[in-house]
Amino acid sequence: MTSDAPIGLIDSGIGGLSIWRAIRRLLPAERMAYIADQAYFPYGDKAPEDLCERTESLSRVLLDKGCKLIVLACNTASVQTLAHVRAVFPDVPFVGVVPVIKTLARTTRTGTIALLCTSSTAQSPYTRMLFESFAPDKQMVIVDCQGLESLVEAGELRSPALRAHLANVLQPVTTAGADVIGLSCTHYPLVRGAIKRALGPGVRVFEPSRPVARRVASLLTASGELATARAGADFFGTTGEVEAYRALVGKIVATDGAEFGSVEAL
């Protein structure tokens, strides 16, 4: 694989753009190919075996585009399908996004930590393993923020509906006395400011985009595949409606010169 090959990213929608943004800031010379599986959004309520089929199929699309590394830029896809795609494509480096429980446990002063996530991430054995490994002596508040990713996906990034939803679902965090919270869906960092305002100054907010970007940089450095100059345009694909997707992506990241297109999965 050559250093000017793109980095691939997969998410159920636009949430993975929080990871895309962090990679672009850290590695500005890298070209990226991003796929939003909007026809199957949201991933949080889908069966693990179905998600494995989706991420395998979309990984093949990215590999056909010559991607040198693939990021599952979605917490649900990562906890449910990362082992599967690594087994199917053993020669491809995959990077996942996992709940930042270790960071929360290390940072809390009150001993109570909160995790904002989808139902699938909350219920996954992987999340339970992280908690038992890194925070067995901490009180955990799981906030199933069902519906928040849909508001973000609809472009409701600053709306009254978003503020009302956050005020409702985040109440258990302050009631329990949590002083740290992890954003465990990649859609959530896109409204991090609104989340911080809803929680107030007493709760610190953590999310995994920068650690994921650093992991990507580390792997590409080790393999000698870091790009020195961007060779070609970024690609934004969707299994949904392209023009609506183009408008939504443009609200979040710079798309000058980027290519947009339709993608088929399965």
List the helices and strands and how they pair.
Blueprint: E1 7-11, H1 17-26, E2 32-36, H2 48-64, E3 69-72, H3 75-88, E4 94-95, H4 101-107, E5 112-117, H5 119-123, H6 125-134, E6 139-144, H7 148-153, H8 160-169, H9 171-176, E7 180-184, H10 192-199, E8 204-206, H11 209-223, E9 235-238, H12 242-250, E10 259-262
Parallel strand pairs: 1-2, 1-3, 2-9, 3-4, 5-6, 5-7, 7-8, 9-10
Structural description of this entry:
The protein has 266 residues and is an alpha/beta fold. It folds into two domains: 7-97 and 209-262, Rossmann fold (3-Layer(aba) Sandwich), CATH 3.40.50.1860; 101-206, Rossmann fold, CATH 3.40.50. The protein is 44% helix and 17% strand. It contains twelve helices and ten strands. The chain has helices spanning 17-26, 48-64, 75-88, 101-107, 119-123, 125-134, 148-153, 160-169, 171-176, 192-199, 209-223, 242-250; strands at 7-11, 32-36, 69-72, 94-95, 112-117, 139-144, 180-184, 204-206, 235-238, 259-262. Strands 4-3-1-2-9-10 form a six-stranded parallel β-sheet, sandwiched between helices. A four-stranded parallel β-sheet has the order 6-5-7-8. It starts with 6 loop residues before the first strand and ends with a strand. The mean pLDDT is 94.
Give a concise summary.
Helices cover 44% and strands 17% of the residues.
